[in-house]
Amino acid sequence: MAVEFDSNFSFNQQLWYYYTTNRGKIRSRYNDLTRKFLAYNDSEENPHAFLRKPQFEALEMYVFVKEFMNNKQVYEMFDDWRHKRDCFSDASYYALEKNGQIRLFDAPTERQTDTLFKQMKKYREDYPNYIYALTMGLGKTILMATCIFYEFLLAKKYPMDKRFCHNALVFAPDKTVLQSLREIMTFDKTKVVPPEYSRVLDANIKFHFLDETGTILHTIDDSDFNIIISNTQKIIVKKKRKEETPGQMLFNGTGSLLSAVYGAGSEDDEDDAWDDTTLMDNQRFKKLCRLPQLGVYVDEAHHLFGADLEKQIRSSGANKTSLRDTINLLAANTSIVACYNYTGTPYVKNQLLPEVVYAYGLRESIWNGFLKDADPLGFENVKSDEFLTAVVTTFWKRYGGKTYEGLNPKLAIYAAGVEEAATEVKPALEKILAKLGIPASKILLNVGDTKYTKNDDIRDFNNLDVPRTEGNEKQFIILVEKGKEGWNCCSLFAVALFRSPKSKIFVLQATMRCLRAITDERLTATVFLSKENYDTLDDELHKNFNMDIKDIKNPSNADRHKYQVRVLPPPRTITLKRVWHEYTLHEKEYSEPVDFKLVDTDLSKYASIMYERDSLARDTTVKEKNIDYLQENMKFSEFSLAGEVAQYLNISCILASRILRESMDGIDTVLKAVNRYNAVLDDYIIPAVFHALFDVTSELKTEDRELVLLREPKDAGYYEFSAKDDLVITNKYKGFTPDQLKKSFHADTYCFDSIPEKECFMQYITNGKVAEVYFTGMFTSNQGDLSVHYYDPESGRIRQYYPDFLAKMADGSYQLIEVKGDNKIDDTVVKAKQAAAEEMAVASGVKYLMYAGSRIVSSHILDDEPMTSQQGTLPLGV
To answer: Cis peptide before 593, with omega less than 30 degrees from 0?
Structure first.
């Protein structure tokens, strides 16, 4: 009996659940450069981080798969996960469902995982193949560029590590998207790469853009850091047979000059005739085969594969012109690290493709404000003129006279053909606009035919999103199948599609054109469709996103709703001490030999070990075997090691050589240890030499800072939060007296995360010992200045968190309050937050309190001594 696929189960969610529950420990095992790269793009650590949340999460998963999972194939990771093996040996015995619910890893789940494993293993490639699914408008091109920059930085730092790509081949599905990929070349790297490292990339990266069929690929054989941007048709090997004339047979022979130049020699059939185009394609392919450590990146993979996505991904050579066959040919001829597919539609026939390692869907993008919302309207039994009248009237009523970031809202009207657009739709639209008093000059016709669309029209079309241009004045855009990737218009607020197009996927693509976000405010676009197209859209949403039209509006988690939270005047402020340490570096003379302490140091932590069990059938012990010979450590001489130390610390090579030579360990011991394990250089040699030449002094400093608890949102009238109804309290709550209401509410709505938080607020606002109390724990995205900096022992980085409450007591003192679940009180990270607040608790005279949730709900906390309290300084982030 076949096991039916359960759409509530997907491995990428299990991966994400495992990663997020162990994020600190996992990050602590990354290379230091990787941790810096992630911290630069993490909005929790860098308030100015450029990447959006879905982009950063996808980057986190990209790094996790590479550095923690060591580029394992998806089916291998899955097999380890389901058997709680290797990296997943400490994984929870719970599975995460699609709706976020956690359930026990039960028998049905095991049957499901077994079915998935067999499917994954059956369709595996000879190289790792990963799919990153981010819906349209979330910035897949920028994510791809960020991943490539990360690869090249790590490859430069660790050239012997086979996990990292030294070259990147970027595939685009068609010419339109190929042009949009130029952003990889022009993108400001400092937005996603720390400035001190972006210069390294600029000095090493070589771009090759194959936008014409006859373009030769000018890469140097065996070189690194090439980014080749192309599409399949400009790479794939094609042999074209044609009859040779007697003259060609006489003069060509078997060893032609062209075959020698382009590499089409004896390995190809001698009786094959190659024309110029074929030779050019083959030249590019041969060049790619001579590039080491190649990473293949496929942009808009869903579009390239088209309706036969699953068939093409599973193609085992039947279609010799497919993308998969091209990549397989490359893999057979050079070293491919992995293939990374970026797509917006990870589902095939409602089933999530098994290779998906990260997905951020259309629903989540809309709910979390990364895309506009959508209001799909279907029209049944109406004529085309009636449909158009309803469309224009509704559009103008909803959006007429408004501007967004200086841009006029646009309506795209799709016609079935060029003649229909020019001779039927345009005249009908002009009549409708005349009745509404709208000038016909607001119409733009772009149909791809020079008879109707002139150069000025193309210019205006390209300037639709440019303020103070003629293009921005155009608001009614008549198009013919301009719905695919590559057209990005943020000011598009509506689409209208009456005729049924030849391709059903076009309905979905055209609809999604108007969802791109504009301003920080949550906005809603309108989609006008015939009933047939409306049903098609519903079907395509179901197939490509595993959702229905109704799901756009109604979250599946029915007990949580969106709340608009507005800041209430006046701004609440508090003056507290900002406390920090200033460190000064002092040079000193090298005076005595350095002890690296390598003689008796146990270096086993760097050893590579193989674990072997003789038999699964017999109860035998596990044997350990050292396999250090597999490590590819760089071999230093006395001079090259001195040069490495000198370059790292920016000191004289002669001085570095002297320190190493005169060390108490002796140069031979140092070289032996470093050459055995290169990590010894970073962990022992560099720090010891640094402390021999420099001293670091610390000075404690403080200053008064006025902190604003909550600022007005930029370009919007409110913040938006999701919460359960029973955990929300507003400033209209009838249970509070007028005097109690005056004690609080710097925002009109408080959305609590738990019952203990809500109960804590209730007790404070109603108690006579309290003069004011504000819930600050919900504003965790730099909406206010009140935050606590602490050292995270798991990630090894400085982070910040936002305490739950700030209270001013009747005696004039202040309390900073943290509410924690009982199971979190002794957590190492929670302890680190507590220690940070208590360590610097003197200067401001603020009392830091941490309450266990069970204690709040079972007692009156203000009548008892708190569980944890400390008088003193508060480390505040501004």
So the answer is: no
Domains of the chain are 126-238+279-360 (3.40.50), 241-274 (no CATH), 366-558 (3.40.50.300), 579-699 (no CATH), 707-872 (3.40.1350)
Write the CA distances from 28 to 64, 278, 801, integer angstroms. Answer: 12, 50, 19
Q: How far apart are CA 220 and CA 54, in angstroms?
A: 36
Of the candidates 494, 524, 499, 523, the residue with the CA atom closest to the CA atom of residue 511: 494
CA pair distance 706, 485, nearest whole angstrom: 48
Write a three-state SS string for 225-260.
CEEEEEEHHHCCCCCCCCCCCHHHHHHCCCCCHHHH
pLDDT in tens, 753-762: 999 999 999 9
Burial class (CB in 10 A: 0-12, 13-18, 19+), 733: middle
SS3 category, 876: strand
Classify residue 10 by burial, with Cβ atoms within 10 Å: 0-12, 13-18, 19+.
buried
CB contact at 8 A, 312 and 129 = no
**Residue 125, SS3 per DSSP:** coil
Q: How does DSSP classify residue 422?
A: I
Residues in the chain: 878
Q: How far apart are CA 379 and CA 532, in angstroms?
A: 9
Over the stretch 485-542, which tens digit does the pLDDT of each residue have?
456 789 999 999 888 776 777 777 778 888 888 988 888 888 888 888 888 877 877 7
Residue 661 backbone phi and psi in degrees, to 5: -70, -35
Per-residue pLDDT at 836: 79
Taken in order 500, 503, 506, 507, is the CA torsion positive or negative? positive
Model confidence band, residue 42 (pLDDT cutoffs 50, 70, 90): very high
CA-nearest of 15, 114, 135 to 68 is: 15
Q: Residue 708 gets which letter from DSSP?
A: E
Q: Token digits for 252? A: 């060509």
Query: Residue 729: which of 778, 802, 780, 786 has the closest Cα?
Result: 778
- Count of CB atoms situated within 10 Å of the CB of 50: 18
